[in-house]
Design a protein that fits this description.
The complex is a heterodimer of chains A (853) and B (222). Chain A is α+β, with helices and mostly antiparallel strands. Helices cover 58% and strands 15% of the residues of chain A. Chain A has four domains: 1-56 and 249-388, no CATH class; 61-243, no CATH class; 404-521 and 711-853, no CATH class; 522-710, no CATH class. Chain A is built from 28 helices and 22 strands. In chain A, the strands form four sheets. Chain A has a nine-stranded mixed sheet with strand order 6-7-5-8-4-3-10-1-11. Chain A has a nine-stranded mixed sheet with strand order 17-18-16-19-15-14-21-12-22. A two-stranded antiparallel ribbon of chain A has the order 2-9. In chain A, a hairpin with a 2-residue loop joins strand 6 (162-167) and strand 7 (170-180). In chain A, helix 8 packs parallel to helix 24, helix 18 (581-587) runs antiparallel to helix 19 and helix 24 (722-749) runs parallel beside helix 27 (816-843). Chain A is elongated. Chain B is an alpha/beta fold and 222 residues long. Chain B starts with a strand and ends with a strand. Helices cover 36% and strands 27% of the residues of chain B. Classes of the chains: A alpha+beta (853), B alpha/beta (222).
C-alpha cells in the first residue's frame, strides 16, 4: 500500500469509523441536496426532449413550415406556394390536439394529411402489413383513422374498432383502419398520434377553407432563409414562415422561466445540503482540535491539515453525490409526472417518457456533491489549518472567545448587497440579480448568528443569579461555545428561512389569486368544452349555440369568450381574446391597474380599443393609450390600448377586445367558453338542467358552477406548486439534522464537564435540563433569524424573482400562521434533537465521563 | 544542538501583556540530557514550544540543529518536527482511533520513510519500550505508563536528534514515573539524542546531566 493511501486510511477513514452518526448526517445532507437538482434536471430534460422529439417527428423532411398559430392559413395560398420556383414539394396539413372521449386527460395529435403530397415529407409503416403497401390509401375510406400502435395497444384498441374524439362539433367516432409502427410522426407524444385524410379533418374539425400548416421541401441548392424571407414578404396576411426546429427553441424560450425557477429552487436543496456539511465539518474540527494539534506537533504542515479536512469532505461529498444521484434518478419519475401535468396545463400538451439516469447525470451528481462538500469544507479546513498546536496541546485548552464583530460586519455587508441586488430587471429575463440577492441574504443571516447568540446570552446575564443552576450554565455555555452554536443555528436558520420564504410566497400568491377570482369571476355558470383543460387542445364551440343558450329560461345574460394563440413576431406569442364588453361591464368585474373596470370596457367598446393584461403590458412595455400591433388574417392591425387589467391565468400575456370587433377582424366564429349570468331569483339547479338540454348531443360540454370554477383554478394552482412543497419538506429535514448533529457534538465535547457536574452533585434531571435549555435557546435564536431572513427572502421571491420571471403582481400576505407553525417546529425540532444527546449525557456514569481523556 | 540568545516571549491576553520569557540565553550540547525546573508559570512550556517551532519568540534568536527558527518559514518548521524533533507530553496525546503500532508508524509515514522499512522500524521501537505484545491495542486499552511508553516510541521512531519532554511523569505515580525516566535516560545514552525535559519533580530532574532553573522567564542563578 502506498504511503499516501496508508496515511489516508489512518487519518481519514479510521476516525470516520467511530463517527458513524456524523458521517451519516453529512452523507444524507449531501444526498438530499444532490437528489433534488438531479431529479429536476432529468425531468426538465425529459419534458424538453419529448417536445423536441414530437416537433422533429411531425416535421419529417420539411425544410420550412408556414403557419399562423390558431389563426390558420387560408387555403388560397397553397397554389401560390407550390408554384414558387424554389419549392420542390408542398404539403398542406391540418394539425389539432383532440381530447379522446372517455379517457380524461388524454389527447391525440391529429394530422389531416393530403395523401398525394404527403409521401415526400413523412414515412408511415403499418403494423402487420406487407412492406410497400401505402398506408395512406387506407384513409380514402369514410371515417377512416390510423393510430400509432403503441397508443392503441396501451388502450386496448384494435383495427376495425372505433375511437371517439372531441371536436368543435361534439363527439365524432372514427373507425380504426390501421396501426402505425413507431416511426416518423407516430413517435410524437409517446405515440399519441392519429392520421386523417385532410378533407375529412377539415370537415370534422370545422376548418373548411383553412389549413394549420403548409410544409415545404425545397429544391437542392436553395437557401432556406432567403426563401422564408421572400415568402413572408409576398404571401398575404400575417403568416409565419420558419424552419420547423424554430418551434423547439420557442418552446424552450416559453418554458425558460418555469425551468429556471425549478432549477434554482432545486439548487437551494444543494445549498442547504452544503450548509449541513459545513455544520458537521466545522463542529468536527472544533472537536478534533487536540488530534489536529498532535498531527501538527508530529510535523504535519498546515497545508497537510487542510488537505486532510478537504479529503474528508471529498469522501463525504462523493458518497453523498453518488447516493443522491441514484435517489434523484428514482425521484425524477415522480418529478416528471408532476412537471408534465403543470406544463400541459400552463404551456403545451406534453407526454414525456420516464427519464432514465444516464451516466453523465450520475457523474454530474457526484461532481455536484463533491463540489458542494469541498466548498462547504473551505471554512472548516481553514479553521483546522489555523489550529495552534501550542494551544491545542495545552493541558487545559485555552478558551478563546471568537470575534463576533468581524462576522457581524460581513453579515451586514452581505445584507446590504442583497438589498442592492434585489431590483427587478426586464420582465421575462432570468432574474439573476434576484437569485444572487436571495443567496446574499441567506449568507448574511448566517454571519449574523454569532452576534445574535452573543446578544441572547448577554441579555440573560442579569438573570444568572435568579435562574435555576442548569439554565444559568446553559446560558454561559451558549456564549462560550458561540462558534459551534452559531454554526448549528445557521444550518437550522437556512432550513427555516426556506420554509418561511417559500410558504409565504405560495400563500401570498394563493391569497392574491383567490382574491382575484373572488372578485373577477362573477358568472353563475361557465360552459366550456371538456378539452379546455388540456393546453393547446382544439377546444372550440360553434357560435350557433348562443341563441339556444340565451333562450333558456332563467338566463339573463351571456358573455362568450374566445381566445386564440397568435405570434408576436419576435419568436414568442400571446393570447388574443374577445368577450362581450357590454355584458362584462354590467355583470362581470374586471380588476384594472388604475381605472374603473366597467367604464374602461364601455369606452373601449366605443373606441374599438383593446384591454391588455398586466403581464402583456410589462412584457411589451405597453401603457394605456399606446397602440399595439395585432396579427389578423389580412395582415397586422394597430389598435389603441384602453386599459390594463390584472390576470393570473395566462402566461405570456392576454389582449382582449369586444366580440363584435374580434369577429370582424379575425373572422373566427368560434367560442372557447361562455359565461352565463342568471336572472335574479332563478333556481340554479333548474337552469343547469335546462342549459344541458338546450344543447342536445353535446354531452362533452362542461358546465361549471361559479364555486366549482374557482375551486378548479385553485386546484391547478396547488398542483403547480406540488414540487415546491416537496422542497420545503427537505428543508425541514436538513434543519433537524443540523441541530441534532450540533447537540450531539456538544454533549460529546462536554462529557468531561458533565461528569464533573455529576460528581459535584448534579442530578440526571439537572443535566437533562441544562442540555435541553441550551438546545431550546439555540432553537429560539435560529427561529428569530430564520423568520427574519425568510421574510426578506419571500419579499425577494415575490417582488423580484417571480415578478421578473412571469410579470405577476403578488400582494404580500403576512404569514402569521406559517410563522407560528415554523416557530413551533423550530423549538420542537431543537428540543427533540437535543433530547437524544441530553439523555445520553444524563445517563453517562460520572466516573466514566471524568476518566474520558 | 540548541542555542538560545536573549529570547523574549510576551503573550497578550486582551490588553494585558504577560511576559513568559524575559531574555533567556541557553546552550544545550548534542547528546546532553537537560532538565528545566521551576514553579508553574515560570516559562518551561513556553521554552519547549519555542524550541519545537510550535511558536515564535517575540525577540531573540533560536538555533536548533543548525536551523534558525526565528527566520525559517512555516514549512521548514514542520519539516524540522517531522525529521529532527520528537515530543512527548504529560497527557500522552496519542491518536485514540489508531492502534499502538499505527501511532508509531504515523510519523514515519509523514516523514517519507520508505514504506518497506516502516514495519521493521515500528517493531523495533515497540520492542525498545517493551510494548511488543501490545501493538494491536488502542490507547484506551493501555495503562498510563504504557501510554507514555508508546508516546516515547512514537517520538523516537523518526530517529530525531532532539527529544522534547513536557512533564512526562506528571500524570504517573512515582514507580511508573521512575520507569519512564529510566527508559528515556537509557535511550538517550544508547542512541545519543539530546533531551530537553520540563518538569517540576526533583526526582525527574535528578536523572538529567544538567538542571537549569527558570524563574519569571529567566535563568535562576543558584
Amino acid at each position: 500500500m502506498g504511503r499516501l493511501a496508508r496515511l489516508a486510511t489512518l487519518l481519514l477513514l479510521r476516525p470516520l469509523r467511530t463517527e458513524a452518526f456524523r458521517v451519516a448526517v453529512s452523507v444524507v445532507g449531501v444526498a438530499l441536496g444532490v437528489a433534488v437538482p438531479v431529479a429536476i434536471r432529468l425531468a426538465n430534460e425529459s419534458v424538453l426532449s419529448a417536445f423536441a422529439r414530437g416537433v422533429d417527428a411531425v416535421a419529417g423532411r420539411a425544410a420550412l413550415t408556414i403557419h399562423a398559430r390558431d389563426l390558420g392559413v387560408p387555403e388560397e395560398i397553397f397554389p401560390l406556394v407550390r408554384a414558387d420556383a424554389a419549392v420542390a414539394h408542398a404539403s398542406p396539413l391540418i394539425q389539432v390536439l383532440a381530447p379522446v372521449d372517455g379517457m380524461p386527460g388524454e389527447a391525440l395529435l391529429v394530422l389531416g394529411v393530403d395523401v398525394l403530397s404527403e409521401q415526400a415529407f413523412r414515412e408511415y409503416h403499418l403494423a402487420d402489413r406487407p412492406a410497400g403497401a401505402d398506408p395512406l390509401t387506407l384513409l380514402a375510406e369514410p371515417e377512416a383513422i390510423l393510430l400509432a400502435r403503441r397508443f392503441a395497444e396501451a388502450k386496448g384498441l384494435a383495427v376495425g374498432g372505433r375511437i371517439t374524439l372531441l371536436t368543435p362539433a361534439g363527439r365524432r367516432a372514427f373507425r380504426i383502419r390501421g396501426l402505425l409502427e413507431a416511426e416518423g410522426p407516430a413517435v410524437a407524444l409517446d405515440g399519441r398520434l392519429a392520421l386523417l385524410d385532410i378533407a375529412a379533418a377539415q370537415v370534422e374539425f370545422q376548418k373548411l377553407g383553412r389549413l394549420d400548416r403548409v410544409d415545404l421541401v425545397l429544391k437542392p441548392g436553395t437557401d432556406a432563409a432567403a426563401v422564408a424571407a421572400r415568402l413572408r414578404a409576398t404571401l398575404p396576411g400575417a403568416l409565419t414562415v420558419e424552419r420547423p426546429a424554430a418551434r423547439v427553441s420557442q418552446a424552450e424560450q416559453m418554458l425558460a422561466s418555469f425551468r429556471l425557477n425549478l432549477t434554482v429552487l432545486s439548487l437551494i436543496a444543494l445549498l442547504t445540503g452544503g450548509f449541513l456539511v459545513y455544520n458537521t465539518m466545522e463542529i468536527a474540527v472544533l472537536r478534533r482540535r487536540r488530534s489536529l494539534g498532535v498531527l501538527r506537533a508530529l510535523g504535519l504542515s498546515r497545508r497537510g491539515v487542510a488537505a486532510l479536512i478537504a479529503g474528508e469532505a471529498a469522501l463525504l461529498g462523493v458518497a453523498g453525490g453518488l447516493l443522491g444521484a441514484l435517489a434523484g434518478g428514482a425521484l425524477s419519475r415522480a418529478a416528471v409526472t408532476a412537471m408534465a401535468r403543470t406544463v400541459s396545463q400552463l404551456y403545451a400538451y406534453v407526454r414525456p417518457e420516464p427519464p432514465a439516469l444516464t451516466a453523465d447525470t450520475l457523474l454530474l451528481g457526484i461532481v455536484a456533491g463533491l463540489g458542494a462538500a469541498l466548498l462547504a469544507a473551505a471554512g472548516p479546513a481553514r479553521l483546522a489549518a489555523g489550529v495552534s498546536p501550542r494551544e491545542a496541546l495545552a493541558p487545559a485548552a485555552l478558551l478563546r472567545l471568537p470575534r463576533v464583530a468581524a462576522a457581524s460586519a460581513a453579515g451586514i455587508m452581505l445584507l446590504g448587497a442583497a438589498a442592492l441586488l434585489a431590483r427587478p430587471g426586464p420582465i421575462g429575463t432570468p432574474p439573476v440579480g434576484g437569485y444572487l440577492a436571495a443567496l446574499a441574504a441567506m449568507l448574511g443571516g448566517a454571519f449574523l448568528s454569532p452576534a445574535l447568540l452573543a446578544a441572547l446570552a448577554a441579555s440573560g446575564r442579569p438573570l444568572l443569579h435568579i435562574l435555576p443552576v442548569p439554565a444559568a450554565l446553559a446560558l454561559l455555555s451558549l456564549r462560550r461555545a458561540v462558534r459551534r452554536n452559531a454554526v448549528a443555528a445557521s444550518a437550522m436558520m437556512v432550513g427555516l428561512a426556506m420554509l418561511v420564504s417559500v410558504s409565504t410566497m405560495i400563500r401570498s400568491f394563493r391569497a392574491t389569486v383567490e382574491a382575484w377570482i373572488g372578485q373577477s369571476v362573477r358568472a353563475d355558470f361557465v360552459l366550456s368544452p371538456a378539452g379546455r383543460y388540456v393546453k393547446g387542445s382544439d377546444a372550440r364551440l360553434p357560435a350557433d349555440i348562443l341563441p339556444a343558450l340565451a333562450a333558456v329560461e332563467g338566463v339573463e345574460a351571456l358573455d362568450p369568450f374566445r381566445g386564440i394563440r397568435v405570434e408576436d413576431g419576435r419568436g414568442g406569442g400571446f393570447l388574443l381574446a374577445s368577450g362581450d364588453f357590454a355584458v362584462h361591464a354590467r355583470y362581470g368585474r374586471i380588476l384594472m391597474v388604475g381605472g374603473d373596470g366597467p367604464a374602461v370596457l364601455r369606452a373601449a367598446r366605443e373606441a374599438g380599443a383593446v384591454v391588455v393584461s398586466e403581464t402583456f403590458a410589462l412584457r411589451y412595455g405597453v401603457r394605456a393609450g399606446d397602440r399595439v400591433s395585432l396579427p389578423t388574417p389580412r395582415g397586422p392591425i394597430r389598435l389603441p390600448v384602453g386599459g390594463i387589467f390584472y390576470d393570473y391565468t395566462t402566461e405570456g400575456g392576454l389582449v382582449v377586445m369586444d366580440r363584435s370587433l374580434f369577429t370582424r377582424l379575425l373572422g373566427d366564429p368560434f367560442l372557447s367558453s361562455v359565461a352565463i349570468y342568471l336572472s335574479p331569483g332563478a333556481d340554479p339547479e333548474g337552469v343547469r338542467r335546462r342549459i344541458l338540454t338546450a344543447v342536445p348531443g353535446r354531452e362533452d360540454l362542461l358546465l361549471l358552477a361559479n364555486r366549482a370554477l374557482k375551486a378548479r383554478v385553485l386546484e391547478i394552482f396547488d398542483q403547480t406548486f406540488a414540487i415546491t412543497y416537496a422542497l420545503e419538506f427537505i428543508a425541514l429535514v436538513v434543519a433537524a439534522l443540523g441541530v441534532l448533529n450540533a447537540q450531539m457534538a456538544a454533549v460529546l465535547e462536554r462529557q468531561r464537564e458533565i461528569g464533573i457536574l455529576r460528581a459535584v452533585g448534579f442530578g440526571r434531571r439537572q443535566v437533562l435540563g441544562m442540555v435541553l435549555t441550551e438546545a431550546g435557546l439555540l432553537g429560539v435564536a435560529a427561529n428569530l433569524l430564520g423568520v427574519a431572513v425568510g421574510l426578506a427572502l419571500s419579499a425577494i421571491l415575490i417582488h423580484v424573482i417571480n415578478f421578473q420571471s412571469f410579470g405577476w403582481t403578488i400582494q404580500f400576505h403576512f404569514p402569521t400562521r406559517e410563522i407560528l407553525l415554523v416557530t413551533a417546529l423550530a423549538l420542537g425540532t431543537a428540543l427533540a434533537a437535543g433530547a437524544i444527546p441530553a439523555s445520553v449525557a444524563a445517563a453517562l456514569p460520572p466516573v466514566e465521563a471524568i476518566r474520558y481523556e | 544542538m540548541i542555542l538560545l540568545t536573549d529570547v523574549h516571549k510576551i503573550y497578550r491576553a486582551g490588553k494585558v501583556e504577560v511576559p513568559a520569557l524575559a531574555g533567556l540565553s541557553l546552550t544545550v550540547e548534542r547528546g546532553e540530557f537537560v532538565a528545566v525546573v521551576g514553579p508553574s508559570g515560570c516559562g518551561k512550556s513556553t521554552l519547549l514550544n519555542l524550541v519545537a517551532g510550535l511558536d515564535r519568540p517575540t525577540r531573540g534568536t533560536i538555533l536548533v540543529d543548525g536551523v534558525d527558527l526565528t527566520r525559517a518559514p512555516e514549512a521548514a518548521l514542520s519539516r524540522l518536527r517531522r525529521e529532527r524533533v520528537g515530543m512527548i507530553f504529560q497527557f500522552y496525546n496519542l491518536l485514540p482511533h489508531l492502534t499502538a503500532r499505527e501511532n508509531v508508524a504515523l510519523p514515519l509515514l509523514l516523514n517519507g520513510t520508505p514504506t518497506l522499512q516502516i514495519a521493521g522500524r515500528v517493531e523495533a521501537e515497540l520492542e525498545a519500550v517493551a510494548l511488543l505484545g501490545r501493538g494491536d491495542h488502542f490507547p484506551h486499552q493501555l495503562s498510563g505508563g504504557e501510554m507514555q511508553r508508546l508516546a516515547i516510541a512514537r517520538a523516537l521512531a523518526p530517529r530525531p536528534a532532539l527529544l522534547l519532554a513536557d512533564e512526562p511523569t506528571g500524570n504517573l505515580d512515582s514507580e511508573r514515573g521512575g520507569a519512564i525516566l529510566d527508559l528515556i535516560r537509557r535511550l538517550n545514552r544508547t542512541r545519543a539524542f539530546t533531551v530537553l525535559m520540563a518538569t517540576h519533580s526533583p526526582e525527574a530532574a535528578a536523572v538529567a546531566d544538567r538542571v537549569i532553573r527558570l524563574r519569571d522567564g529567566r535563568l535562576e542563578i543558584p
